[in-house]
Amino acid sequence: MEQTMFYVFAAVALGSSLAMVMQRNPVTAAMNLVLTMFSLAALFVLLQAHFLAVIQLLVYAGAVMVLFLFVIMFLNLTDDQMMPGRRSILHVAGVALAIYALLQLRELIERTPASAPKPLAADFGTTAAIGKLLFSDYLLPFEITSVLILAAIVGAVVLAKRRID
Amino acid sequence: MVPINHNLMLSAVLFLIGVAGVLTRRNAIIVLMCVELMLNAVNLSFLAFARALGDMGGHVFVFVVIAVAAAEAAVGLAILLAVFRNKETVNIDELNLMRW
Fold first, then answer.
1. Which pLDDT does position A34 carry in this prediction?
2. ipTM of the complex model
3. Smallest Cβ distance to A114: which of B4, B20, B29?
4. What is the nearest CA distance from A78 to chain B, expressed in angstroms?
5. Could you give the 3-state DSSP secondary structure of residue A82?
6. What is the pLDDT of residues A3-58, one digit of tens each?
């Protein structure tokens, strides 16, 4: 059952991400990315990461993608701006590089020993367990993240606001 | 349980789809979306290793990565808005202000 679920959601993630990269219309691309996020959240659940699956849905499929869609619609790109149909050598080079890197990575991954999975703690992946880790062992990264988000808020406001002349 | 190799392979393929998108697409918004896809692919790797090793450190990493990605999207899109206001385009071929 778990295997079947994995392959179904992996296929959905692969298909929708490919569709996103090939899609000419930015709104359709964004919708495909939302679908990718959803199937990745399902894969997170299969990996016993329940809290992060919910965060993935709330933050990515919710907040970030709404921001993307808002900007796409705000810019209101005309058709010729949306699809500059220039097929350059960069297209071929980019795809070739990705395929070559994939082949290299595959050899590396095949060498990863498929050891028997370690027994999991009863609270593995729960909010309580992550909270305990965040406020003990990983307190400094947590605080740095909050400073980063503050900087991002200030930066976004300053960048996006119109000059008052 | 799904073997860790399959998760890692899926993660690698998703990451490289993102790389190919960043290298080939000319619309800056879609380039940003491809970067988000790459970050997500890496998250999948982290969680696969966390599951295989029974260690929740990977979950904290993913938590931080999601926070950074949200901040990156906010600032990146704000920059795009500012650029669009000045140049009336988001095609990265026409944005050569900082070219050497």
1. 94
2. 0.90
3. B4
4. 10
5. helix
6. 899 999 999 999 999 999 888 888 899 999 999 999 999 999 999 899 999 999 99
Burial grade of B97 (CB within 10 A; 0-12, 13-18, 19 or more): exposed
Total domain count, chain A:
2
Indicate the number of domains in chain B: 1
Tell me which of A78, A100, A118 is where a domain ends: A78
Measured over the CA atoms of residue A124, residue A125, residue A130 and residue A133, the dihedral's sign is positive
Which among B51, B63, B4 has a CA at the least distance from the CA of A45?
A: B51
A134 lies in the same domain as A71: no
My answer on whether A74 and A1 are in the same domain is yes
Residues of A in Cβ contact (< 8 Å) with B93: 84, 86
Residues 6+ apart with CB under 8 A from A146: none
* Residue B97, domain member (yes or no): no
Give how far the C-alpha of residue A163 lies from the chain's centroid of Cα atoms, to the nearest Å: 33
Segment A83-142, tens digit of pLDDT: 555 567 777 888 888 889 888 888 888 887 777 677 777 788 889 999 999 999 999 999
Say if B93 falls within a structural domain. no
Nearest CA in chain A to B6: A109
Q: Which of B7, B33, B59 lies nearest to residue A130, judging by beta carbons?
A: B59
Residue B96 included in any domain: no
Is the residue at A18 inside a domain? yes
CA distance linking residue B85 with residue B92, whole number of Å? 15
Supply the pTM of this predicted model.
Answer: 0.89
